């Protein structure tokens, strides 16, 4: 399974973590980690819970609570997810994973200060938790603290060179800082990991786009469309939204919506 149980919202989000015994690190131990330039760097539960959640969570094991939390997230019920994770946290105050996951739910709910507090606490409990640094980087980016964000993405990547989402998020942040060459470098390293290529081609293409390298941008956009699904299933929702964005970006460049041979 993926290192977490929630979906990936466009790029500035990361899957929450599950206990190490319940996950398989993507690529871990299989291939050598990618080389990185030193210049490189860049989302259970508290809140207004319903009575049904409070009753349904009684007597459940931590694993069952996490499974129930996952279901509430799939329904977009972040308040109930926060309530469930808060129950987990109260059972084990030393669980960095649960603080990280609750922080992601606060982030999804737009409660950035609460998210930041949970990420900070998760990192205090486990300074090696790569996903917590990536998630905190997303929170810093949302607050406009881009330098802090890039430093957290750096830490996430140093701890886990296969953290493709941290590489993408850092590339997006570098692009926003107009540090385009380093952004491109991030996306190229991410492509070497062989994961979510559609997202990476889309973001590298967008970087070429804002740089004025329009031929390179269109080439990457077309590659992105080969990978991004047209399906509207919940598991592909972020990819489907990105596909629509890519088609709009192509239209910006050449004024035609007929460039996608798969549409």
UniProtKB/TrEMBL annotation:
TPR repeat segments: 96-129, 130-163, 198-231
Q: Which PROSITE patterns does this entry report, sorted A to Z?
A: TPR (PS50005), TPR_REGION (PS50293)
What Pfam families does UniProt report for this protein, alphabetically? TPR_11
Q: Which domain of life is it from?
A: Bacteria
What keywords would UniProt list here? Repeat, TPR repeat
Q: Where is this region: Disordered?
A: 25-59
Sorted alphabetically, which PANTHER family does this protein's record hold? TETRATRICOPEPTIDE REPEAT PROTEIN 6, UDP-N-ACETYLGLUCOSAMINE--PEPTIDE N-ACETYLGLUCOSAMINYLTRANSFERASE SPINDLY-RELATED
The protein in question is named: Tetratricopeptide repeat protein
């Amino acid at each position: 399974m993926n290192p977490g149980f929630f979906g990936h919202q466009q790029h500035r989000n990361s899957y929450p973590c599950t206990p190490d015994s319940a996950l398989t690190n993507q690529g871990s131990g299989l291939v050598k980690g990618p080389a990185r330039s030193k210049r490189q760097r860049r989302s259970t539960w508290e809140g207004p819970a319903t009575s049904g959640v409070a009753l349904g969570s009684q007597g459940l094991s931590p694993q069952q609570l996490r499974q129930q939390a996952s279901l509430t997230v799939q329904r977009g019920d972040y308040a109930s997810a926060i309530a469930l994770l808060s129950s987990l946290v109260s059972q084990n105050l030393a669980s960095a994973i649960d603080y990280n996951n609750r922080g992601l739910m606060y982030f999804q709910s737009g409660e950035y200060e609460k998210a930041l507090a949970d990420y900070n606490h998760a990192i205090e409990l486990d300074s090696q938790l790569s996903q917590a640094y990536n998630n905190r980087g997303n929170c810093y980016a949302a607050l406009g603290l881009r330098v802090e964000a890039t430093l957290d993405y750096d830490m996430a990547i140093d701890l886990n060179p296969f953290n493709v989402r941290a590489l993408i998020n850092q590339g997006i942040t570098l692009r926003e800082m107009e540090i385009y060459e380093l952004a491109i470098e991030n996306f190229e390293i991410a492509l070497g990991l062989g994961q979510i290529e559609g997202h990476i081609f889309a973001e590298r293409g967008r970087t070429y786009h804002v740089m004025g390298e329009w031929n390179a941008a269109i080439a990457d956009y077309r590659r992105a469309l080969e990978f991004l699904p047209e399906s509207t299933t919940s598991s592909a929702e972020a990819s489907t939204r990105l596909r629509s964005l890519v088609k709009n970006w192509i239209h910006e460049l050449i004024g035609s919506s007929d460039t996608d041979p798969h549409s």
